[in-house]
Design a protein that fits this description.
50% strand, 5 strands, alpha+beta, single chain, globular, 105 residues, 2 helices, five-stranded antiparallel β-sheet
Amino acid sequence: MLLLIAVFVAYTIARALKIWMTNNASPLESRVATAVTKRTEVWGGRGHAGTHTSYYVTFEFQNGSRRELEVKAKAYGLIVEGDRGELSTKGTRFKGFARSGRRNL
């Protein structure tokens, strides 16, 4: 049982390290996108532990494809569904969103 737990932990660490290295090696990309949906995920809060909130925004590109990215709380608060602008990413990381206008909904 202990060996199984050790293998799971090693796999999880290796996977996270691979994603981190891939993101660091990726170029900074910018694309025109529209913020189509926003959501939050609250986790934790058992016993004396505090809760944590993760913030996500789904962006739609000109070709119709969509991508959901985790964003920081400040960026989440500044983005409104329907905003159109320049989305900057580095691999799977959200780097910024410069609003250029608002789409008619």
